Amino acid sequence: MKEINDKAREMMKGYCRVCKVCDGRACAGEVPGMGGLGTASSFKSNVEALEGIRVNMRLLHDATEPDTSTSLLGYDMSMPVMAAPIGGISFNMGGAITEDAYTDAIVGGCKAAGVVGCVGDGVPPYIHEAGYASIKKNDGLGIPFIKPWEGAELDEKLELARAAGCTTFGMDVDAAGLITLRKMGRPVSPKAPAELAKIIEKVHSWGARFVLKGIMTPDEAALAVEVGADAIVVSNHGGRVLDHTPGTAEVLQEVSEAVKGQLVVFVDGGIRTGVDVLKMLALGADAVMVGRPVSVAAVGGLQEGVEKYMETLRGQLVGAMVLTGCKDIASVDINVLF
Ligand SMILES: Cc1cc2nc3c(=O)[nH]c(=O)nc-3n(C[C@H](O)[C@H](O)[C@H](O)COP(=O)(O)O)c2cc1C
């Protein structure tokens, strides 16, 4: 990973410093870029909230070879981790590799590691085109996240993603706050429940599933259940859309309790190590998404970089599960936390 990170630091010069800990400090305000919006308080809160949580060490047990596998939304995965959707290599990461090479690395690397890669959306169109092409190449194993566009663009992209063989579709509703899209004059907006219900009904009529990304409160999680979503992602978009939100680890427990058993709960934001994954599972997530560090691995090492990153994270998760006495993912609960 050191080699991959060193290479990425060179290739992402001026866009990402590939810091020892990716915590939003050095890149505050760099949107476009890899940073958080404004003071980057939301990005920093994600990392700080996780840092503030402690785990109970337990060794008097027989969980010596924990099983990290899980099944979610019809995907059998080697661990409850996905690569978060991230788009815009040229204006966010410096463009040292193409968007196609990037999404191939993410989707292919995740598939090889037994997890699922997500792809993003935006302007220009090569962002979603690259993502859908990579998903198609990988037999539909990837989740496209489409922005909450106004007008026909949303339907058009759903159809394009469907043609690529996707079985799960996502929408990052929180992208309604994205400064990059506003600058490009492309309208995105919050989505009223009635409109969302219609979109989800359409996706369900294809026998597919729908994920709503950008949920930060229990009331909106309950609304996600009402409109028929199959999953939510507790997320503040890595702190890129609104300054001064809480960290996702601060809101996760309350949000997941509000919808327990009714839909799948993902979370992202500031997850950097296997212990962080364990903490999020203990707070009620079914799985997590990792953003920036996977991007860095993809730029620095392409598919191999992503595979290596996932392998490293799984090794750390196994270690954390042994030291906290968790024999499998289902047995991770709040008692893991101090
Ligand atoms: C450069 C960049 C581009 C992103 N593009 C998208 C996108 O196209 N769609 C989306 O749903 N989220 C996007 N995100 C948000 C990520 O999916 C994710 O929520 C966030 O990065 C998680 O936080 P982390 O990077 O601290 O792990 C983007 C984030 C970054 C840093």
Automatic annotation (TrEMBL):
Residue stretches making up the FMN hydroxy acid dehydrogenase domain: 35-338
Keyword Oxidoreductase attached: yes
InterPro entries: Aldolase_TIM (IPR013785), Alpha-hydoxy_acid_DH_FMN (IPR012133), FMN-dep_DH (IPR000262), FMN_HAD (IPR037396)
Name of the protein this chain belongs to: Alpha-hydroxy-acid oxidizing enzyme
Required co-factors: FMN
Taxonomy, superkingdom: Bacteria
Family: Belongs to the FMN-dependent alpha-hydroxy acid dehydrogenase family.
Keyword Oxidoreductase: yes
Keyword field: Flavoprotein, FMN, Oxidoreductase
PANTHER family listed in its UniProt record: 2-HYDROXYACID OXIDASE 1, S -2-HYDROXY-ACID OXIDASE-RELATED
